Amino acid sequence: MKIKLSELRQLNFIEKVILHCHDQSLYLVSVQIDNVEHYVADEQDRFLKSFNKLSLQAKFKDMTVGEMVLRHQSPYDEMIGLSEERSDNTLEVLIGGEAYALQRGDADKLN
Fold first, then answer.
1. Cβ atoms of residues 68 and 16 within 8 Å
2. Number of domains, the chain
3. 100-107: which pairs have CB atoms within 8 A and are 24 or more residues apart?
4. Residue 21 contacts by C-beta under 8 Å, 6 or more apart in sequence?
5. Which residue has the higher pLDDT, 24 or 60?
6. 108 backbone dihedrals φ, ψ, rounded to 5°
7. Positive or negative, the Cα torsion across 22, 70, 93, 86?
8. CA distances from 20 to 5, 76, 101, 103, 105 (A)
9. What is the pTM of this model?
10. Are 71 and 34 within 8 A, CB to CB?
11. Is 71 helix (H, G, I), strand (E, B) or coil?
């Protein structure tokens, strides 16, 4: 399911912004709204993507975001001797949003 960036700008609050890290440092963006994940599209209905994660983060600077995370899922577990059975190896790192500001003590940046 996709949602346009312009539609996100209409919302008062976005629970979570997820930057999906793929091979060759390509990042795709999804958001979580009402516990449902939606990939973000531009006005031409193309997935919002970039090789520069800071440029993607900047697109959300004027929006109220609960948390922004970098998510990585490695397809290479079997190459390092781990089981070939499908297991969840998702790594999420908090990189922004209100939760990040509060953890860093930057509550004044929320105003």
1. yes
2. 1
3. 100/67, 100/68
4. 27, 53, 70, 71, 72
5. 60
6. -65, -20
7. negative
8. 16, 16, 21, 22, 26
9. 0.79
10. no
11. strand
Q: Give yes or no for a contact between 28 and 39, defined as CB atoms under 8 angstroms apart.
A: yes
User: In which band, very low, low, confident or very high, does the pLDDT at 104 lie, cut at 50, 70 and 90?
Assistant: low
Domain that holds residue 52: 2-110
Check whether 4 has a pLDDT greater than 80: yes
Among 28, 106, 31, 111, which residue's Cα sits nearest to residue 66? Answer: 31
Please write down the HEC assignment for all residues of 31-51: EEECCEEEEEECCCCCECEEC
Task: Give bridge partners of residue 14 from the DSSP assignment.
Answer: 65
Distance CA 35, CA 28 (A): 19
- Give residue-wise pLDDT tens across range 47-65: 999 999 999 999 998 999 9
